[in-house]
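U., I forgot to send this yesterday:
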Amino acid sequence: QVQLVESGGGLVQAGGSLRLSCAASGRTFSSYVVGWFRQAPGKEREFVAAISWNGATTYYADSVKGRFTISRDNAKNTAYLQMNSLKPEDTAVYYCAASPLNSPSDPRRYHDWGQGTQVTVSS
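Result:
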């Protein structure tokens, strides 16, 4: 089991940037796929980005491709989501999650979740 804590959320104007962090505890973090998901009020949780255990492969939702970058530092047990050119429609609670399975965009495949961090983008 992996415990995850997100940080870095906040309020930003459209066009701005934020960097989210996901700090993990547990020896198996470096062998897990890490994903970022988001959930806006009244909407289902949706996939944002994911990264393979060694960082070699990344996956992105079409809505964030070219604007967001996922990365990880296994030595620090931390994953990141760099978000640039933010839009009001990016407003949501952002969650990081970890999974030993290679199904990066399916939230049902993730067993360990953080508590979430709020991102609000004003127009």
